[in-house]
Amino acid sequence: MPIEHTNDRVILKHPKGPTVELLLYGAHILSWKSRSPSNPDELSERLFVSAKATLDGSAPVRGGIPVVFPSFAAPPHAHPEHSKLGIHGFARSEVWTFDKVLRDDEETVAIRLTLSPTPKIREVYSRDFKLASVITLEATQLTNELQVTNPAVDPLEFHALFHSYIRSPSKDVLITPLKGKKYFDKTDKTFQGLKTESRDGVDVKRWTDSVYEDTAGESGVYEVKWPGGGVSVRTRNLKDLVVWNPQEEFGPKVVDLEEGGWEKYVCVEPGYVRGYVKLDGGNSWVGSQTISLH
Ligand code: TA6
């Protein structure tokens, strides 16, 4: 079977070998194993999940691809409708519903999960919404699509982001093209304005927590490279990019991050988080990322 669906998770199996494993909790992708075009014999894990991650649905998973909606970052949130929400909103800590298989053929395996307000969500968030997460596995790439529908009359304002933990030797990673882009540096408590990126390639050799704005440009494509490997991240309707790695300086404070885990990934997070997506009543919005192997 190309798709296995158990109580708490779904496994997608591509006919050429790649697999994706995800939890219904958070529509959270835990694993993506794929071959690279340059080395088709090698089927390897492309995401990082901490050995100390909680996988029982009692806390967000440290690693993989968390989905952030409707608010990014820690409280206090500036938006009045987000005042009761915790860090990164609720999408990553709710159990989604397996909706359907969208494709299952020689080229593509794709499924859709959905989430609508639950009693638990209504305690902290009063707006109506419908979310769908479409996960598409192809031979050398993985696509996440978040669809947001506003069934109400009033506009819905939200943040959306894919908090992807890309497995990589973090000290050797370079991310482009961010030169000249404005960013908010969350590691610098002494400066609350926007900095301008001066580097051709952004590294995460030191603790990095940078929220770049309006980076997607015409192409919406980022390159993440390291010696002997890399990925391209192609985005749609996600104008901003967050780059995060705590390194030794902050990593030990992240309680569910394994010792030294910060050396094994870089978070490259396409999102719409500087300002809000404003979605008119009765309309839908789609944001997506496609991660392709070099
Ligand atoms: O996206 C970067 C970030 O907001 C960092 O500030 C950070 O600490 C991180 O996400 C992880 O957040 P979490 O809630 O998963 O611990």
TrEMBL record:
- Which enzyme class? isomerase
* InterPro entries the record matches: Aldose_1/G6P_1-epimerase, G6P_1-epimerase, Gal_mutarotase_sf_dom, GH-type_carb-bd
Reactions catalysed according to its record = alpha-D-glucose 6-phosphate = beta-D-glucose 6-phosphate
Give the UniProt keywords, A-Z: Isomerase
Q: Does the keyword Nucleus apply?
A: no
Q: EC number(s)?
A: 5.1.3.15
Q: Does the keyword Isomerase apply?
A: yes
Q: Which Pfam families match?
A: Aldose_epim
Physiological role: Catalyzes the interconversion between the alpha and beta anomers from at least three hexose 6-phosphate sugars (Glc6P, Gal6P, and Man6P).
- State the similarity comment: Belongs to the glucose-6-phosphate 1-epimerase family.
Q: What is this protein identified as?
A: Glucose-6-phosphate 1-epimerase
UniProt source species: Marasmius tenuissimus
Organism taxonomic ancestry: Eukaryota, Fungi, Dikarya, Basidiomycota, Agaricomycotina
